[in-house]
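Record format v2
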Amino acid sequence: MCKAMEVKICLIGMGNVGKSFLKLLKEKGDNFRINFNFVCKLVAIFEHDGALINNDGIDLDNLLDDNAKMRNNQYWIPKVKAQDLISTLDIDICIETTPTNPNTGEPALSHIIEALRNNIDVISSNKAPFYLQYGKIKNLAENMDRLVKFEATVASCVPVISIKESLSGNTISRIRAILNGTTNYVLSRMATEGISFSVALKEAQELGYAETDPTLDISGYDTAGKLVILSNELLGWSKSIEDVKIKGITKITPHALELAKLDDYVIKHLAIAEDNKLVVEPRLVKKDSPLNIQGTLNIIELQTKFAGSLILMGKGAGGFEAAAAILNDLISIVKKR
Amino acid sequence: MIYLEVKLPDIPGSLIELIKPISQNGGNIHGILHHHDKKINNTIPVDIWFELSEELIEISLENIKKDLIKNNIQLVKISVDSKNKILTFILTGHVFDSDITDTIKRFDSKNIKVLELHAKFTEVDEISSVLMKVEFPEVMTKFELTNEIEKICKEKNLFLIRS
C-alpha cells in the first residue's frame, strides 16, 4: 500500500460536539489509516478566548479531559480569533462546531465563508448558516472548487443528507419528518400519560431532553431550519427559513390528543416539504404510520419516484452522534480529494 | 379510486406508455378497457381505473398527468372517487364560544359536509377541542379545503391540526 495521505484539519469550537469529535478522531485514527489510507493531523483548535496551534500536530493525550490543560499548553495563543487566523493556516479541512446565534448564523457563518475563501474544505455541525445562507455558502464552495459538508445539522448521524448521492438516479417528491427530539418527547408523553403540555415539557427538561429555554424547539423554529436544509439539499430548492410556515406545539391539549385517538390518530410535529411549500406544524398521523415514533427519536420519510417511501430513523441529537456525522463527512471529503 | 380516460395511438407499445407512469407513481391498477370499436384517427379511447394512497393522491396524480403528457397520451378525463375526498382534523380553542354551528354552516356553504364530530371540553366557555371528519367536493383540492378551514380558524382564533 502507498504511504497514507496526511490530512491537516482545524477545529473551531470545543464544546460538547467538538470534544466528542476529537475523542472519536483519537479512537478511530488507526481505522482511517487501515481502511481509507489517510491520517488526520490536527493543527489548530480554536476556542472563544484563543487558539492552540501547532503545525506539527496537536497531541490530544490529556487535552480532552481538562480545558485548563489546553490553555496552559505551550502552543496556546490567547485572545486570537478563528476568523483572523484561518487564512494563515496550512490546513485542508476546517471543522466548525461553535455555539451559534440561530438568527444570524454567527460566528459559524463567517468561519465557513472565511475557510472557503481560503481554499479550505468545510464541515459544520451548525445549521443556522445553512438555513439562512444556503445559496451563498454553496455558490462560494462551488466557485472555489471546495467541498462543504453538514450532515450533523439535520438528525445528527442519521445519514439523511449523504443519502442524496445514493438517490442520484431517483427523484424525491416529498419529505415528511420529525426532526426535533424535544417536541416528539413532549407529544409522546402527553399522548401516553394524558398529561398537559407544561408538565410534559418540565419532565423533558428534568431529563435533559429539553433546553432550559426550549423556545426554539417548541416553536418549531429548530425543525424549520432543518427542513430548509433538507429541501434545499435533497429537493434542489432555494428556500430560507422565512419561507417556512411554522406552527409550534404549545397549543396542543390533552383533549386534542384524546380526540385524535378516537379515529386511530396521534398528533406529531411534522416537517413537510411538498409542492414547493415548507410546513412545520402539528399533524394527525395514523397510529400505524412509520411516523408514529416515540421519545426523542428523529424520523425522515422520503417519498421517491422509484423506491416508494424510504424511511430513516435514529437518534437526532447528542455530542457523539453529531461527531460521528462529522467523521463521515471527513471521510467523504478525503475520498473525493 | 381514480378513473382515467385517455386516447391512445393505435400502435404497439403505447399501452405500456400509459401503464408505466401510473405504476411508477404508486398506482395500483384495477382495470383497463379498450374501446377498439370507437377508434378515430388511429387513436383508441381507453378507460383505466386505479388506486392511489390517500395521502399521496394529489402529488401522485400530478406526476402521472405530467408523465402521460410527456408520453404524448391525450388525457380526456380524470375523476377521483369521492371516498378519497375525506379529511379528518381537530380544532382547538374557543370552538363553542366562537359558534360551532356557524362554523359547520360555513363548511356547508362550500359543499363541505361534516360527516362526524366529536368534542372534548370541561366548560363550554373554556378551551375545547373538536374532531371533525368532512367530505369535500371532487373539484376541491385538499389544499383548497385546508385554506377554507384556515380562513375560519384565523377569524375565530382556532388552532387547526389536520391529517
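The first strand of chain B starts at residue 2 and ends at 9.
The mean pLDDT of chain B is 89.
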